[in-house]
Specification:
Length: 303
Amino acid sequence: MGVNSNGLNFSYETFCAFLPRITGGSSSPTNTDNVNPLIQQILTIYPGSTIYAAGGHSALLSIGDDICVKVSYKPGGEHIRHEQTIFMQLESVPCPFIAHSLLCAPDLIFMELYKNGTLHEPCLEDLGYAHGDINPRNIMFIEGDHLRLVDFDHALRVGDDVEVGDYPYVRPVGANKGNAEHGGSFGIAGADTEQFALGSIFWDMVQGTGLWTGVYGPDLVDRLTDRVCPEMDLEDPINQIMNDCWKGKFESIAALAARIRHLAFEKDLEQKKKACEKYYKLICGAVSEPEARTPETTNPKTC
């Protein structure tokens, strides 16, 4: 679901002019002759509502300060029906790191609106699903710069073939090289495909630029297929996590999440130790008698 930090804010007329461009390459092109009439009806009913975002199969309409509704471009759209089934299953495992639906109806999904812009907790994995399309457009910023995963219309069962995706968040399986891997164009949905996408997301966040920016065509495909990683200091624990994601070393997304939690815990602990060292120096500085300081107190040990 493509959106910038302020939303598209399209009028219905602008949206209709834009629609053929974004659906022309899909299996079901849409224009003013076959677009879902619910889109215009909703914009008419709610004063101040706009087309906030437009994806390959549906539009996101803002209808309030923090509420939006996702509408299928065509009545009875299969992608929105699929996403509704995913949301129904997610109700059994509520998670603060993914978007949840507020109400589902034919061709409609009501949900929270995140206006702070775009950029896994293992709950999808527990249900036996992979998101299937992790990329910066599907990761939203909420309050406090926290992230939330959205857009599940390409979610698929673990073990299914992955046929869609954007470079560098998917990896071609390399059939043209005689690669022994099987599956769809981008492999088999599961921990390997999800962590590869997340590794590229982490690179975006750390480096401020996309993985292999400036590399195009066969060169880019070959690097992704062969799991070639940029040169980086692997002594850095964050770089090591990215490298392991691209190499497919995590057996599950839960294992990746555990590594990240452990790293965050270690960093927090190290910061607290340094703070305590500063406190101790202040205490020592307040002692006027040099003889009151023993080697044990001037050179404290951390546990």
